[in-house]
Amino acid sequence: MNAHLRKKVLWIDDDTTTLQLGQIILEQAGYCFLSARDGEEGLAVAVAEQPDLILLDYAMRGMSGKELFELIQASDSFTYLRHTPVIMLTGHSGSNDERRELLNLGLAAYLVKPFGPRELLNVIDNVLITNEVREKNRRLETELQNTFASIVKSLMLLLSVKDPYTGEHSGMVLQLAEALARRCGLSEEEVFEVKIAALLHDIGKIGVPESILRKPARLTPEEKAEMDKHVIYGHRALADIPKLGRVREMVYHHHERWDGMGYPDRLVGEQTPIGARIVAVVDAFDAMTSDRPYRAGMKKEIALARLNEASGTQFDPQVVNCFSQCLSEGLPLSDRCANLSSLVQNFH
Q1: Looking at the whole model, is its pTM more than 0.85?
Q2: Would you say 242 and 195 are in contact if contact means Cβ atoms under 8 Å apart?
Q3: Which of 233, 246, 307, 339 could make an SS bond with 207 (beta carbons 3.0 to 4.6 A apart)?
């Protein structure tokens, strides 16, 4: 069976003769041919028919091909068309800057007129094959992201069942860490990793006895030593998830101190990953401002003053300064008592 059968190709061109020739070439090759004679009609046909590929004349009367392509890429009304490959047909080669601009926006290819049937079909075949591979990779990536998100959510919900306070605390730390990471100038990928580290920073407490986790009083030195092992347990829990390599190190080191007096490895200054230094600040802030069975939470102003007092000893001074700026601007935080599962559903 011809591999092109049922593949829809929409040709948008204001030259009737070109469309007639195009129809002959494409239908003989096994494609389903669709046509439109201007940009507005082409957009309507694309929305209605959802073609597999669009051939778009650059210089049409009215809305040009370039304007139509840019409209599809920019408008939220046509997001489902953005993955449809578009080949731009042009009578001139155009400037390199313009070609680069459109290719960066997602244009699949240029085809300079005049071109013969063989050249046209070769370009169409190559674009469709490339798009099929890209779509398959996109689906696989989505599946991996969903699986990954499910693992993170399951870990957090398991922890929240064992210790509801820790679950709520992790949700608040996530929100604070995201704002602080952006203020510190981290990239989007780094912000994403910091968010996961913030959410999972206490995951190792699954391995700490409930008698210690839920003790309604201060811990003894022996109990404190056992509680401190949660960073080790967390490090082990994430060991077999390759995607969480850097996150794992943040979880392991979020109790290091700027002066080297923290645990587990007594790292000094910038030896501690920036994500762990961010989590350390927001972890301490939320712990100070939350109510516990043996004490009431501090006012935010007092907690911030404590952070500033420990700046340069316990905490990274630059991170504390950025956090002060975040608080001064106001942070749109969810209610502490909000259901953790609903928060985790949207953590990505």
Answers
A1: no
A2: no
A3: 233
